[in-house]
Amino acid sequence: MGLFDKFVNKKTVEGIILGAPVSGEIIDITEVSDPTFAEKILGDGIAIRPSEGKFYAPCDGTLESLYPTGHAYSISSEDGAELLVHIGINTVELKGKHYSVHAKQGQKVRKGDLLVEVDLDVVRGDGYDVVTPMIIMNSGDYSKMNKASGEVRALENVLTLIK
Amino acid sequence: MVQFSYVINDELGLHARPAGLLVKLASGFTSTITLKCENGEADAKRLIALMKLGIQKGSNVQFTVAGDDEKEAVAALEQFMKEKL
User: Who's near A6: CB < 8 A, 6+ residues apart?
Assistant: First the structure.
């Protein structure tokens, strides 16, 4: 339990709460090896070094895009957040190899729906970093973003967005 | 209003990184910038809308730019597309 959980338990913070898309260790977005993420070109967020290959919807919303390659998906949440989960760095190059897609672009999703499964060991074996950024693409719409840190289980609260 | 079109030449299409860079470039202009392809159209300043189009190699993308800085915007966008996509 980190500082973040205390905030949530006390209900002193109101905002949009997003769960972890995958189990693993949270790392600072600025430490991601790809400058596109580290320099927040796509927006601010967090990254997770995944310990399991199951990737879920972090909130209720619409699956706005799920590339046929399975390496990235975006969701617009019911409360207006636009988030991107990008599974691994430069993994677009795998063209879907080692990724199984369990949902369809355009469908409604519920928090906890399994969207993509990945054989992480094989992706690593092909020489790719499996670090998974979760980016808020409209982060400019929020004045503050509370980020969790440390180890998380999938769907545990990791981000709170405050208007 | 100024329009131009471009056929995507990049093997991987308009995936997250180039889409993000395009949004960043487009957001630097006050003109409205709309991008249209066979899957629909999107505001080039909104990443989620751009990615939804799932633009692949071979797609013909038409840009429509309207506003005070449309000429500068078109020049910058054309250069970006040629260099990155």
Answer: none
Domain ranges of chain A: 3-162
Tell me how far apart the alpha carbons of residues A96 and A109 are, in angstroms, rounded to a whole number: 21
Assess whether pLDDT exceeds 80 at residue A9. Answer: no
CATH number of this structure's domain B2-84 = 3.30.1340.10
pTM: 0.87
Q: Name the CATH superfamily for A3-162.
A: Glucose Permease (Domain IIA) (2.70.70.10)
Residue A134 has pLDDT above 90, yes or no: yes
Nearest Cα to Cα of residue A3 among A23, A26, A32? A26
Does the predicted interface ipTM exceed a cut of 0.90?
no
Q: Tell me, yes or no, if B39 comes closer than 8 A to chain A by beta carbon.
A: no
DSSP secondary structure code for residue B15 in this structure: -
Mean pLDDT of all residues belonging to chain B: 93
Mutate to test the interface with B, among A64, A92, A104, A135 (most CBs of B within 10 A): A92
φ, ψ for residue A3 (rounded to 5)? -55, -40
- To the nearest whole Å, the CA of B35 is away from the closest chain A CA by 17
Each residue of B36-84: pLDDT tens digit?
Answer: 999 899 999 999 999 989 898 999 999 999 999 999 999 999 999 999 8
Q: Among A71, A86, A98, A102, which one carries the catalytic annotation?
A: A86
User: Among this protein's residues, is B15 annotated catalytic?
Assistant: yes
CA distance B49 to chain A (A): 8
